């Protein structure tokens, strides 16, 4: 009788020990990945945001791009500019440019300069570069081969370049009759 109880307790204890060791190993790997991959990337993004804000580049680009929001061709051009494969990873960090352009467009919508029906297409146009800043990190976290990196990153950036204006057109038609 006591042998069965001891065996049962040993089995339960062994199972709990295994579970705890798996959880501990997972936590250790997560911490290691955070320290080796996330933190350096976040430091780089913070530096890039500081340079964009400190140099005035963000405000300048926002003021240049905001007037494009008053027409569909302007929004398509805005989306096209924001998703140029070489430019989009630079524009995306911290959504600095999108935040500035969004604030300027929002102000123009609030004052009536731009009709409110342009809000949804403008959102899709100025945010079409979303995700392009984290793309190298996301692909790099999977420990891909060099071939996968050199094919994957350009493929996604070029697909955003193509789908950004398409999403803007879809948003334009979806916004008809909203306001």
List keywords for this structure.
elongated, 179 residues, 2 domains
Structure notes:
By secondary structure, the chain is an all-alpha fold. It folds into two domains: 40 residues; 119 residues, no CATH class. Helix content is 77%, strand content 0%. The protein is built from eight helices and no strands. The protein is elongated. The model has no long low-confidence stretch (mean pLDDT 79).
Give the overall silhouette: elongated
Average pLDDT rating? 79
Tell me the fraction of residues in β-strands, as a range.
under 5%
**Rg for CA atoms:** 24 Å
The strand count comes to 0
- Which parts are unreliable, with pLDDT below 50 for 5 consecutive residues or more? none
Number of helices: 8
Topology record:
Elements: H1 2-55, H2 57-65, H3 72-82, H4 88-91, H5 96-111, H6 119-126, H7 135-140, H8 146-174
Helix pairs in contact: 2-5, 3-6, 3-8, 5-6, 6-8
Summary of the model, kept short:
The chain is mainly alpha-helical and 179 residues long. It is 77% helix and 0% strand. It folds into two domains: 40 residues; 119 residues, no CATH class.
